[in-house]
Amino acid sequence: MLMENLGGGGHRDMAGAQLDTSLEKAYEMVKDTIQTCIKEEE
């Protein structure tokens, strides 16, 4: 789910996404996506 939300995909145990941005922006994108997934689980 996490990588799909970032435009990637793969398997539940091994997934990835290619982000065309800076490392700092990618970190923020991943962090925000994780927080969103956590909120959806609650």
Q: What would you note in describing this structure?
A:
With 42 residues, this protein is mostly helical. Helices cover 55% and strands 10% of the residues. The protein is built from 2 helices and 2 strands, in the order αββα. The protein has a two-stranded antiparallel ribbon. A hairpin with a 4-residue loop joins β1 (9-10) and β2. The chain starts with a helix and ends with a helix. The model has no long low-confidence stretch (mean pLDDT 88).
Tally of separate helices: 2
Give the strand order of the largest sheet, numbering strands 1, 2, ... along the chain: 1-2
Strand content: 5-15%
What's the alpha carbon Rg, rounded to whole Å? 11 Å
Largest sheet: 2 strands, antiparallel
Low-pLDDT parts are none
Order of helices and strands: HEEH
Percentage of helical residues? 40-55%
- Report the mean per-residue pLDDT as an integer: 88
Give the helix/strand class: mainly alpha
Kindly state the number of beta strands.
Answer: 2
Q: Tell me, briefly, the overall form.
A: flat
What is the straight-line distance between the termini?
A: 15 Å
